[in-house]
Amino acid sequence: MAGHSKWANIQHRKGKQDAKRGKIFTKIIREITVAARLGGGDPGSNPRLRLAMDKALAANMNKDNIERAIKKATGELEGVSYEEIRYEGYAPGGVAVIVDTMTDNRMRTVAEVRHAFNKFGGNLGTDGSVAFMFKKLGVASFAPGADEDAITNAAIDAGADDVVVHPEDGSIEVIAAPENFDAVLAGFEAAGLKPDESEVTLRADNDIAVEGDTAVTVVKLLDWLEDLDDVQEVYSNADLPAEAYED
Length: 247
Prior knowledge:
Blueprint: H1 6-18, H2 21-39, H3 47-58, H4 63-73, E1 83-91, E2 95-103, H5 106-119, E3 123-124, E4 134-142, H6 148-158, E5 162-165, E6 172-176, H7 181-190, E7 197-204, E8 208-209, H8 212-227, E9 231-236, E10 238-239
Parallel strand pairs: 8-10
Antiparallel strand pairs: 1-2, 1-3, 2-9, 4-6, 4-7, 5-6
Helix pairs in contact: 2-3, 2-4, 6-7
């Protein structure tokens, strides 16, 4: 890390997502649909679906819309069939990027993703070209000022792998294996603690600090990719300064 605020980066990203709430709803519905299709419509036995539903409720999505998406996925209602496709590539500055998509038209999706990389001076790679740099993790984030001792004790009791206090801003991240993440979140709930953000995500083993015009271009590429209708998540190993997010 180059000393950039992890919490500030989370908030900048969240602010941009909130400004595009309609697209966020579409992405959440697709995630609910695929999760229910693959693991069944019962969130009690489908952790991926439960996380997607939690994300939907946190975004103030109507419960009827959530139930409708589940019913479409499980065949109770007619719906669109989506497939999950991952793309990998490099942004300027040697930044590794992973793009997870859900689509009903893979030719359209790959064309749009490739165009985004080309437009901002990056290049789309082959399967596996950058994925080896990332690990799948459950991450619960707490804002600066949260009770470190209470969070640490609850995390240890619930089986988390690590608790990271970021010295740049005092924010706290609790890291867990994806299969244990539900138990960790349940442990926090039992202890009366609520993470400000929680997700199963991909994290790079090592981040690359990017500055100046290159950082601005990387942010533009990541934003462009996130704004594509078929894109669900965008991951990178870029360590970006707050000013790179300014319009």
